[in-house]
Specification:
The chain has 147 residues and is of the alpha+beta class. Helices cover 21% and strands 35% of the residues. It has a single domain, classed as TolA/TonB C-terminal domain (2-Layer Sandwich), CATH 3.30.2420.10.
C-alpha cells in the first residue's frame, strides 16, 4: 500500500513540475546505502519523501530538492540523492530532470538487531528504508537507535 502511495506522489510531482521530465523512468545506476536517520527513528517519523533531481550529461545527480515529505527525513534523502547516478539504458545524454521517492518505514515486532536498517532500491527510482523496532523492548531490554 505504501509503495502505491509513493508512486502516486511521484506521478503528482511529474504532473505539477514545469521542467520537462525524461521520457523513460529513471533507474539507479549507482547509489549509496542510506540508514534510517537516528533522530527520525527516535521520534517515530515515517513517510515518503519525493526528491526532484537534475543530472548532468554523464547521469550524475548535480541538484536535488525535496518536494514533499517530513522535514526530518527530507534533508537526509536529498543528501543521499546527490550521491546517485541515474541511467535509462542509454549512453551519455543531455542533462535532465527526474524524480526519486524515498519511503521510510518502521517495522514493529521482534527483530534480531534494532541497531540496523535495510536500504533497497525498488523499481529504479523508489528507495525503501526500513528500520526495525520493538524486538528488545518487547523482551524488556532497551532498544538502540538505528545508525
Amino acid at each position: 500500500m505504501q509503495t502505491w502511495i509513493a508512486l502516486a506522489l511521484m506521478s503528482f510531482a511529474f504532473a505539477s513540475q514545469p521542467a520537462v521530465p525524461s521520457a523513460a523512468p529513471p533507474r539507479a545506476g549507482t547509489f549509496v546505502d542510506l540508514s534510517y536517520p537516528a533522530e527520525a527513528l527516535a521520534a517515530r517519523v515515517t513517510g515518503t519523501v519525493v526528491v526532484r533531481v537534475t543530472t548532468d550529461a554523464s547521469s550524475r545527480v548535480i541538484e536535488a530538492e525535496a518536494l514533499s515529505g517530513p522535514a526530518l527525513l527530507g534533508s537526509t534523502a536529498v543528501a543521499n540523492a546527490k550521491q546517485w547516478t541515474l541511467g535509462t539504458g542509454r549512453h551519455a545524454r543531455a542533462p535532465r530532470t527526474d524524480f526519486v521517492a524515498y519511503l521510510f518505514e518502521i517495522q514493529h515486532g521482534s527483530c534480531n538487531d534494532d541497531s540496523r536498517s535495510l536500504f533497497q532500491v525498488v523499481r529504479g527510482n523508489l528507495a525503501v528504508i526500513t528500520a526495525c523496532s520493538g524486538g528488545r523492548e518487547s523482551r524488556g531490554w532497551s532498544s538502540s537507535i538505528c545508525q
